[in-house]
Amino acid sequence: MIEVVGSSKLSSKLSSKLSSKLTSNLSSNLSSNFSNEASALEAVSHHRAIIIDDDASVVLLMSEFLESNSFSVTAYSSVQDFKRRALGGGDSRSGATPDVIFCDIKLPDGDGIELLSLLKEEFHRVPVVMITAYGNVELAVEAIKQGAYDFLEKPFSPSRLSSILESALRWRELVNENTDLKKHIAADLKLGGVVCISPAMNAVYDLVRRVAPTDSVVLITGESGVGKEQIARAIHDNSSRAQKPFISINCSAIPDALVESELFGHAKGSFTGALSHRKGLFEEAEGGTLFLDEIGDLNVSVQAKLLRVLQERSIRAVGDNKQKRIDVRIITATHKILQNEIKENRFREDLFYRLSVIPIHIPPLRQRPEDILLLARHFVGVFSTAYSIPVKEFTDSAKRKLISMPWKGNVRELHNLIERAVVLSAEGVIDDYDIPESRAVNIEESLKEVESGLPSLKEVEKRYLLKVLKQFDGKTEPAAISLGLSRRTLYRKLAELSLDCRPSSIGHSQPQLSSAGNVDVQNDRYH
Amino acid sequence: MTDTTKNQSGAEFTVSPQIRQKYLKILDAEIETLKVAVLSDDFKKMANILHRLKGNTPMYGFHKLGQSCLEFYSKKDHFDTVDPNEIQKLLFKVIESYESEACL
After folding, report:
1. Do A289 and A399 belong to one domain?
2. Are A196 and A336 in contact, with CB atoms under 8 Å apart?
């Protein structure tokens, strides 16, 4: 808890000036008397706060608190005072954007809630905390509905002020961070909300950046929920086709009998129920992009027709004899490993090569833990805005839990979990108990999974020793010479690695343990 | 030396002697203005000052004064009909609380 006690010399001097003036005239303009000192203070201050309140004692207490926490404070005593000095340029620092604004709900010449809309208009993304008298909660709730960040009920304690301040600054930091990130990304690449920082995702973005301006066919692979459609859309948005349609279809969601008609359209009377000519999705996407999701689930007969479309760049509607030329970029995606599908004769190999001109693989979320909290905070921002709920922060234990989760459902699962946490968490924070217990796993397990493809050094050493021993029919002397070791050292290593160097064991590809768990040197026939 | 008391919600509340001293000057002026308002039957001003005092005094550790102001403020809708002696009594109670707590 930050206490008022122990304020800096500068703030004491400031308060002293402030109080002497206050006693002479309580309703006088508070800030004008210390603007010079505040300017000097600003040079060493990290943050800036505005207080709009006619109550001198509230301003005194809050100023003291804020200044002792490295804030420079500007106070206004009424709506008119604020408009005249802050907006009318009367205040020398009116151009500086504050980090937080405290505004009394009841001001002598107006309503704080009415002023709130002006504040929100003038200072975008600055949290406004309304100050209210005890028992005026209805008004405070109304203020929050109108866009206030939170409210401070009088009398308030420094811990309450401190907690609101910390939370408001964190909110502002997040909003700024989000805006900066979006600006940074948007300046270079339109990603429609996809925000990741991991090297793996940066490699994906780099590929998107390079492939987007071309008309190459792209195959996006990755587990369910990693955001394949978002990447497809990013490719479209960053291509010359951006102004044309982006049509997305999930191939697994359409019954086999209807896929052909959906994709290529049908002529009138081509089958029962075909009462009129109907355009297919290829035609709908003319000039734009057609995204075929879950391409691995497309039935084989339609695969042949799709192959033909890719080769000839023309389509023929069901029941129609005419070929129609099309200008459509095709992007496909699947969570399946298509090479396995080819082996099982469920996917045409020639189509695979046509589709995978540019393959883009999106790694699962658990393999890029650095993206988890960033995405989680991004979603908190999204849902806080959507549901008009103050932005909630994660406790340290919640963060640890989020990082340790397996995320089988990837970004989609994270998205849904954060929505639930934002809505259901009772306090202003999201704690670990707001995250379902059953889905979390040990962090070591996650890391093991990431590194599962790599054998340990000990394992490599074991394999190598066995290979050399096998080469010399289990004879330790030539094996030791070959390894550049003394025989004694070789025996020690065999014992350390619990290896049995009997010929029957060496013949196996996997190292075998002796019954004792290590090599019995005395009984080693090759000793 | 600091003055530590409890606020309305029961949380520990600490202000420095310097800030308390500054607030006392404000409080002096507020009490004087309240006296003048009572003497001149300026009910609106009385209500305004009491509203401020009941909210602010506990923040600086003046709880007894806060209670007296709250008691006085609760009559605000009937200031014009309440017996003037009753008003005087309420004012004296405020002054008494102020003097007892301010001298600590």
Report:
1. no
2. no
